[in-house]
Specification:
Blueprint: H1 2-11, H2 18-23, H3 32-40, H4 44-50, H5 52-74, H6 85-108
Helix pairs in contact: 3-4, 4-5
Length: 112
């Protein structure tokens, strides 16, 4: 139902994203819903072209969740990752850079 409402708003030229409405630029997650839809239809390449970061995160989650569930519910063990302060900062820096690179990609490719 919500998808139909969103599609209807887009068909009449409306903007749901306030960031895009006021800046004219796509937000950092612009196209994520459409990327999920494309993935569900089996169009992984199109999903990646539309929203690279969201596509990679979604595919990774779909692949890793069953492995996690198997280890927790069948093997009865959990993987605990302990990171040092430097490693946490490094991962945060990489995540921020990936978000910014993805956003730049969205802006350059005029994702709507």
């Amino acid at each position: 139902m919500t998808a139909l409402l969103v599609a209807g708003v887009h068909l009449i030229g409306g903007q749901l994203c306030l960031f895009r409405k006021y800046t004219g630029l796509p937000c950092m997650v612009c196209g994520s819903s459409r990327a999920v839809e494309l993935l569900l239809r089996g169009c992984a390449q199109d999903a990646f072209r539309l929203q690279p970061l969201a596509t990679v995160v979604i595919v990774a989650a779909v692949l890793l969740l069953p492995i996690h569930w198997f280890s927790v519910f069948i093997l009865r063990c959990q993987l605990i990752v302990c990171l040092k302060r430097f490693e946490k900062r490094l991962l945060l820096t990489i995540a921020v850079l990936l978000f910014l690179l993805n956003w730049g990609y969205l802006i350059v490719n005029s994702v709507v």
